[in-house]
Amino acid sequence: MDKKSKILIIDDEPEILILVKSRIESSGYKGITAGSGKAGIELAMKEKPTIILLDLLMPEMDGYEVMKQLKSNPLTEKIPVILFTAAPPEEVIKKGGQVMEAVDFVIKPFDEKALLFLINRISDMTSEDVMD
Asked: What is the CATH architecture assignment of 6-131?
């Protein structure tokens, strides 16, 4: 696991950004945050994070649109995205066609250990892909 991996958290709730960034950084990752979909897309292109945690329910540009733009951009299309949302699981599944390119999803309120396990697993897979 590359503990210097950058994790981009895109969420419109400042408390969530602070909490998740703190948890990620206490596990050795570098956390970067964006408070909107537009800012998240810009940061993803600039920072090239290892993983993106993406909230679905945001004003202005929701996570579905952010995902669509990330996956259609050659600079960001290969970055694994974990959907991170308070939306009910059935809503996420119902809109499955729009989120098919996400590697997984986590429902808020989240289990900290489960989230970090998922990040570790995806970071390990990403590191192996880079080495191949």
From this structure: 3-Layer(aba) Sandwich (3.40)
